Recover the amino acids of this structure.
């Protein structure tokens, strides 16, 4: 297993956000973490990369116990993280944004150069010198993913990559994630959009109120209409 | 005309040194969010180091190498300070780093005197640049010309560093979003150390290049730090180019201000800052502070009414204070009276910064206005004490109404700097308006009424007024108005969205805080029997900040306890030893590291851990 998480408990102050969340991802697998707004998807990702101070449970990445490591140490092991709100450096150009994400090549993980990423997202190639703040939401989403890929990760946590994007851009995102999988990357995405998740994922988890309510293949999820209705339908 | 041109060049030369110091301060603030009060101390250390090195190393190489080596040595000291001290307190409330660096400043000031003595030191002249050049028939020192070039040269080098190296790009990224930089695998700790060292290097270099121009002395730090802060704020926090423009502005202002407005030359800089901040609330090239993104899942403990244990402690302290005159002599009572006054002062500052979210670097203004209010009433109207106690706070009230109206238009450090500007304007009016305020000589003969003139009587009077004052502040904190004020502090956007007029609420909070501080000032004037410009000066404001932070900003009792600890400690240490700065500074640093929540915050944590249900929300405020 590339990533193994068991019994994850997270707190914000006294609020208990996650209760015993578990999640695994194998090499080259695309896994979806599905759930409504406020279900605990973002907290799960933030807990994995060490951004939640009060959090316990097993977190193993590539055979290394990452619980207790600092965020930058976890990321340097090859666990890339793309936050939900994109967090582009708006004062930096596209190329400078990519430079910040740059890490040395890593054994067993695909290596990305700026040019590879411009192939993956041709829109970005045309705006290398543009400031991050002068880009559209879709372009920023492409940039934030590219920036994380510059770290040559072996697994990427993608928090709601389709959120707020035009259908045409969502399609490009799906294409890019499939491309990442082809390169041998593991991808964990969080999504509210079941349709989008179905296009790209091998397996899915459903999270609701900080607990995992379902875990299985996409085919299994498709067979269980009542679960979809209970936890995903709007 | 020729003279004016020379004066213009003089302005540019001093702008260069100012820029070195201010750019370092700005870079440090931009990335680490540390308001580095010790920057002036490092500037001074740079000058002393450069003095020593250039005395030992001969020749041109020795001189220039000495300046550079001094800056590097001080930068290494800065890096060590960051690693050993500051790294431990990044998680503490933002202003705690200000407190820690204030402690460091005190320590460095004393160490400098121990190592280099208290005498002014005249450094070597620069080899090869000792002469002067002829400009329009006037002699202009060559060294000053070199300085004029140095400023833009450093600006250019910094631009290259920040745009053409990966490290520089990382620094710019971290200025904007530290957490995201960490989430991309960058070791923040190392980046911060590097940035801190670079900033200190620039500050120390600014000090080192001063040695051929002026004598090195042990008050250089305070002289430069305020000016450097003003420049950073005018330019926009974190903007290097902004710091450069502001340095030129202030350098020229200093050069010409003395010619054009000799009467108000001291305050010109603050006037300009006030005007610029009112027009551009984030400085010339600054940007609105993005709402600080704290790490996920950190929760600040809300301010709650004391539990039963806390109330008993307050009663016990009151009881001790009531029987104090029985076993205390008049000296002790005098000290206790002063501590009580500062407790009220600190509580009023806490109302403004802890509850209202408006940090004030100039709270002395209202304290001093109260003190001068009473002195003027006595001098011109011969008002008796009862009248003075009632009327004098009105001057502080008026000052708060006027200054507050401008200040609440800003936020964060900019607001804090505008409060400083107003305090300095008030100070300079008091200092320079001889006919009315007595200027430097102050106003004498402000004595309490006969019935209150014994130490015991005045002590009880002060105790009564301060206790009632603190209770009223507490009542305000837990009133609907207090909650509204806190909502404006925590989320302007949400406060707006539920129909709260933020500026109006904060203005009211500002006025209340200023008036309570004024009452403290009135009592202080009666205690001392006189008022001086010192009562309205920066050290009083800094004392207030130290008290609030030391006690703990997240409790109402904190500032009162902080005032007690700090005032008592400083009075005691000053009377016992000549190394008081060293000891007090070290104590402050230790307290900051040991109690990052403040002393009372720590005690409350301890208490609540043992008895978690005590003092929970839902308990009716008394």
């Amino acid at each position: 297993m590339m990533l193994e998480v068991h019994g994850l408990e997270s707190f914000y102050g006294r609020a208990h956000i996650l209760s015993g969340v578990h999640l695994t991802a194998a090499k080259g697998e695309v896994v979806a973490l599905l759930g409504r707004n406020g279900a605990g998807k973002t907290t799960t990702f933030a807990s994995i990369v060490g951004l939640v101070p009060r959090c316990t449970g097993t977190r193993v990445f590539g055979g290394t116990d990452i619980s207790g490591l600092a965020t930058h140490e976890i990321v340097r092991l090859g666990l890339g993280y793309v936050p939900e709100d994109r967090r582009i450096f708006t004062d930096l150009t596209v190329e400078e944004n990519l430079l910040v994400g740059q890490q040395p090549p890593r054994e067993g993980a695909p290596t990305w150069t700026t040019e590879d990423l411009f192939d993956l997202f041709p829109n970005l190639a045309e705006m290398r010198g543009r400031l991050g703040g002068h880009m559209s939401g879709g372009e920023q989403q492409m940039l934030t993913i590219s920036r994380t890929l510059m770290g040559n990760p072996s697994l990427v946590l993608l928090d709601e990559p389709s959120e707020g994007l035009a259908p045409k851009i969502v399609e490009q995102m799906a294409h890019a994630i499939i491309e990442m999988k082809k390169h041998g990357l593991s991808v964990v995405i969080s999504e509210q959009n079941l349709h989008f998740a179905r296009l790209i994922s091998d397996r899915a988890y459903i999270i609701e109120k900080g607990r995992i309510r379902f875990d299985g293949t996409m085919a299994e999820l498709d067979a269980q209409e009542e679960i979809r209705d209970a936890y995903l339908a709007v | 005309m020729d003279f004016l041109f020379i004066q213009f060049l003089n302005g540019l030369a001093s702008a260069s040194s100012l820029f070195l110091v201010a750019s370092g301060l700005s870079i440090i603030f931009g990335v680490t969010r540390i308001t580095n009060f010790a920057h002036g101390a490092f500037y001074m250390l740079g000058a002393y180091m450069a003095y020593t090195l250039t005395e030992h190393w001969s020749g041109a190489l020795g001189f220039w190498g000495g300046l550079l080596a001094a800056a590097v040595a001080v930068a290494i000291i800065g890096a060590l300070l960051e690693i050993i001290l500051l790294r431990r307190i990044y998680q503490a409330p933002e202003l705690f780093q200000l407190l820690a660096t204030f402690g460091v400043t005190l320590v460095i000031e004393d160490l400098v005197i121990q190592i280099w003595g208290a005498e002014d030191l005249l450094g070597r002249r620069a080899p090869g640049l000792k002469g002067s050049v002829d400009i329009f028939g006037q002699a202009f020192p060559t060294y000053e010309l070199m300085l004029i070039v140095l400023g833009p040269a450093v600006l250019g080098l910094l631009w290259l560093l920040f745009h053409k190296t990966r490290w520089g790009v990382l620094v710019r990224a971290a200025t904007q979003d530290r957490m995201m930089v960490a989430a991309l695998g960058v070791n923040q700790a190392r980046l911060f150390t590097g940035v801190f060292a670079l900033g200190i290097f620039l500050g120390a270099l600014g000090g080192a290049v001063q040695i051929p121009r002026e004598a090195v002395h042990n008050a250089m730090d305070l002289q430069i730090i305020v000016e450097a802060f003003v420049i950073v704020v005018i330019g926009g926090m974190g903007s290097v180019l902004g710091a450069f423009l502001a340095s030129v502005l202030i350098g020229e202002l200093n050069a010409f201000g003395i010619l054009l407005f000799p009467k108000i030359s001291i305050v010109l800089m603050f006037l300009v800052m006030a005007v610029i901040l009112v027009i551009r609330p984030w400085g010339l090239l600054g940007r609105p502070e993005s709402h600080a993104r704290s790490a996920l899942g950190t929760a600040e403990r809300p301010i709650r009414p004391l539990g039963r244990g806390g109330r008993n402690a307050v009663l016990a302290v009151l009881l001790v204070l009531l029987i104090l005159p029985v076993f205390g002599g008049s000296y002790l009572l005098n000290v206790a009276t002063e501590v009580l006054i500062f407790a009220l002062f600190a509580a009023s500052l806490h109302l403004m910064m802890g509850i209202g979210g408006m940090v004030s670097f100039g709270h002395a203004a209202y304290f001093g206005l109260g003190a001068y209010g009473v002195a003027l009433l006595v001098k011109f109207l011969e008002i008796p004490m009862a009248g003075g106690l009632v009327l004098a706070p009105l001057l502080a009230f008026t000052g708060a109404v006027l200054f507050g109206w401008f200040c609440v238009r800003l936020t964060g450090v900019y607001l804090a700097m505008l409060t400083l500007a107003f305090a300095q304007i008030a100070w300079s009016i008091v200092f320079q308006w001889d006919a009315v305020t007595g200027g430097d000589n102050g106003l004498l003969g402000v004595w309490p009424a006969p019935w209150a003139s014994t130490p015991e009587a005045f002590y009880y009077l002060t105790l009564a007024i301060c206790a009632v004052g603190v209770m009223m502040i507490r009542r305000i904190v837990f009133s609907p108005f207090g909650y509204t004020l806190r909502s404006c502090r925590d989320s302007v956007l949400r406060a707006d969205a539920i129909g709260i007029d933020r500026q109006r609420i904060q203005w009211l909070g500002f006025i209340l805080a200023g008036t309570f501080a004024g009452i403290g000032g009135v009592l202080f004037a009666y205690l001392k029997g006189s008022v001086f410009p010192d009562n309205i000066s920066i050290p009083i404001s800094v004392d207030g900040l130290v008290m609030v932070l030391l006690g703990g900003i997240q409790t109402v009792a904190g500032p009162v306890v902080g005032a007690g600890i700090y005032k008592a400690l400083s009075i005691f240490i000053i009377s016992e030893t000549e190394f008081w700065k060293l000891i007090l500074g070290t104590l402050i640093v230790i307290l900051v590291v040991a109690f990052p929540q403040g002393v009372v915050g720590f005690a409350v944590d301890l208490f609540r851990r043992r008895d978690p249900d005590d003092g929970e929300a839902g308990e009716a405020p008394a």
Remarks:
- Chain B touches chain A at residues 166, 169-170, 172-173, 175-177, 179-188, 295-299 (CB under 8 Å).
- Chain B is about 70% helix and 0% strand.
- Residues 351 and 371 of chain B are 20 Å apart (CA to CA).
